[in-house]
Amino acid sequence: MSRLQTITTDVPWLRLAVTDDDWARESPADLARWMEQLLLIRRFEERILTLHGEGLIHGPAHASIGQEAGAVGAMSWLAPSDGINGTHRAHHQILAKLLNAAVPEDYDPRRDPFPDQAVVAVRRAMAEIMGLTDGFCGGRGGSMHMRWAEAGIVGSSAIIGANVPHAVGYALADKVLGRDGISVAFFGDGTLMAGPVYEAINLAALYTLPVVFFLENNLYAVSTHVNEQTRETRLSSRGPMLGVPALVCDGMDVIAVRCAMGWAVERIRSEGGPVLIEAECYRFLHQSGPLAGSALGYRSKEEEAAWRERDPLLTMPRRLRAMGVLDEVGLASLERRAAEAVAAAADALTEVQPGANARRIRVGLLPAPETVDHGIRNDPPRLPATASAEPKVEAKYIDVVSGTMLRAMERDPTIVLIGEDIHRLRGGVAGATRGIPERFPDRVFATPICENAFTGMALGAALTGLRPVVEYMFADFAIVAADQLFHQIAKFGHMFGGNVRIPLVVRARISSHTGYGSQHSGDPSGLFAAFPAWHIVAPATPYDYVGLMNTALACDDPVLVLEHQALFQETGLVPDGPPDWYVPFGAARRVRSGTACTVLTYGAMVGECLAAANTTAIDADILDLRTLDPLGLDWDAIGESIRRTNRVLIAEQAARGGSHGARWAAEIQERYLDWLDAEIVRVSGSESAPVVSRPLNLAALGDAAKVSAALARLCR
């Protein structure tokens, strides 16, 4: 007869309840400080809603009113060096982190004046939400995207689920670099339903990373109740299911949250992370704006009233009065200080219009429109001076792929490799990491199949001290990670005010000719080109691979390196000795000199174009662009060639819809129309993606035959 046995979790899954003793253990000065923070956050949020109602905030205002206790209690354990992030509703967490970084350790608001640094922090947070130059990101992030690395606010994201892998990356950097930090990802019950959250929790557990996943369960994702989001409404269960200890606490109680966070920190310190905390709380207002949820029909007034009775701004003052920490005069003093700090910030940023009662933003505080594109990228990398050496030794392309990375990791201890199956199979599925796992086992992270999460982890690590190199087994898999690649990596530097270092390299293997079918055969680099923060390089020779990869690893911006599998067994000349040379971005290589027409190409099509020119005997001037992104094209070389030849052919292998050629053709028309004697001709793959059938696979690609026909038409 079969039997059923109950399965229990292998890690703690607990509910925490606090007592009077927990309150009594805290110092009166700390209790007063946390009370001041609650008041300041509430008054700040109320003023933000007022400013929004007056039309002085462009964009949404997601107030955290009701949820302040979770932020204050959680942040009470964190140092300025501990990294946090949040989602679209993060004002309370950001303010609590800023205030803790701005006040001295022995600060007692019952005795000490409100610190000048804290005044500045409040003003700059308000300025950011209002989109002003004095904001932490120069007004570019606004309410939903804020970063101030000096206080450990590494960067919040409005795309739910996206921020959680980033915190895993902060923790990865702490572990690799030997730092004693705690990283925290704040998110809500709605965000928990997003796939990247589970992927991120799993990665953190797999690598035993010091990160706290702080879930604010306020019961509603906009208007959708938690029991409409999931059948298992005990949300903390997601921790144990992935081997992560979980703790549930009262998110409306500062000390309950502080105790939960203390338990998590101690657990991480003693046994390794991560930990999941579920703080049960309630937002008093709708998703954004000043209305209550009941006004929009998805919550009852009775439910809201019951939660209002648990408002930490009501319950904590009663507790502190009973404990003798603060009397009515002391509480009134804290209330006045909070109100004055918020009013001072608003007064510094706004003024009453002459002859009217309406307020306006003070003149000179809005960013200048002409700065709109500033800060998309950092300055070009300063490349080390290397002795020139004549290329005279034959090297195979795939060998320099692994050899260059191994040498780079010997030079730079911050480089880590992240990707699927990169630790086995003698260098991964293509041999690109051969010899590296044996040499640097602690810097090679062979991940589960979760491109979106491990790419987000790489971003978090890049923001906090590492130089990650992400490998996609097939280039198409980049599209699985599109949120991280394009919403996050491509926008963070500019969105957070510019000059944000994101030293991250993505290696994408293109296998278009191998018969792997439509979902494993693409070249997504044209999609990357739509986001100008990305440098895109396509090395066609072993020499260029070494030089361009070394430059990519010296760059403080994200770089996509295309590795075409059709080139892996090709050989070329390189200098004798270690692979330490550099090829600067933005420098095309002349493959063949000619006067009949200019051919612009890259990657595996370089050889196809050379073969076509030789077959047709057309005197083509062939440029291997090497750098493909719109801000990195070598227009000097392109322009010089066009002025000589007066004809242009753009040759790509990729499917026509996703290729670069249309954009290049448009810009050539704008720059060189007077020099053109014929229409610009484009060779590309077909409209369809390659499929498995060999003849259809090859027919879908640009090749020498198509280039030959185009050359004959262009130069007839």
Structure report:
This protein has 716 residues and is of the alpha/beta class. The protein folds into 3 domains: 13-361, Thiamin diphosphate (ThDP)-binding fold, Pyr/PP domains (Rossmann fold), CATH 3.40.50.970; 393-574, Thiamin diphosphate (ThDP)-binding fold, Pyr/PP domains (Rossmann fold, 3-Layer(aba) Sandwich), CATH 3.40.50; 589-714, Rossmann fold. The chain has 23 helices and 23 strands. The chain has a 6-stranded parallel β-sheet, sandwiched between helices. It has a 6-stranded parallel β-sheet with strand order 13-12-14-15-17-16, sandwiched between helices. It has a 5-stranded mixed β-sheet with strand order 19-21-20-22-23, with helices on both faces. Helix 19 links the parallel strand 20 and strand 21 (620-624). Helix 5 (116-129) crosses helix 12.
